[in-house]
Design goal:
Strand order of the largest sheet: 1-2
Shape: elongated
Oligomer: single chain
Order of helices and strands: HEEHEEHHH
Distance between the termini: 36 Å
Radius of gyration: 20 Å
Largest sheet: 2 strands, antiparallel
Length: about 140
């Protein structure tokens, strides 16, 4: 399905104005030079899920109309994307900061043994075990 989508639709429609950055079993990250990608998608409702109805056989925009500004793709299932509108200089809101502080204080008050016992082992796919223990 992914192969047919890339070569049958994307490459045939956009040609050299597209580039595939990352692919996985169920996702693609690509660059496409066009006037309005969402207008192009609306022309093909047989291919794209424009209403986010979770149809298994239609392609979805996982960023929900927020274009990707930066991406880091290391290997399958290990990638990160930031929207084009992301500003790293924007401070966190006071509400988010206070919520994080409250969570940290709760963890400290419960003690390390209680926290590990209650929440089990922390895992991160594709990350070494010693990193998970140290960083998560």
């Amino acid at each position: 399905m992914m192969f047919n989508f890339w070569y049958g639709y994307i490459k045939s429609r956009y040609g050299d104005k597209t580039c595939l950055f990352y692919t996985d079993t169920d996702s693609l990250i690509m660059w496409i030079e066009t006037e309005d990608i969402y207008k192009n998608q609306a022309e093909r409702p047989d291919i794209f899920d424009l209403n986010y109805l979770e149809d298994l056989f239609l392609m979805k925009d996982e960023t929900k109309r927020n274009s990707i500004g930066k991406s880091v793709c290391l290997k399958p299932k290990m990638y990160s994307v930031l929207p084009a509108s992301h500003d790293p200089k924007t401070p966190e809101t006071d509400v988010n900061f206070e919520k994080k502080l409250e969570e940290e204080e709760f963890k400290k008050s419960q003690g390390v043994k209680y926290w590990k016992k209650k929440h089990g082992i922390q895992k991160a796919k594709g990350v070494k075990k010693y990193m998970v223990k140290r960083e998560l």
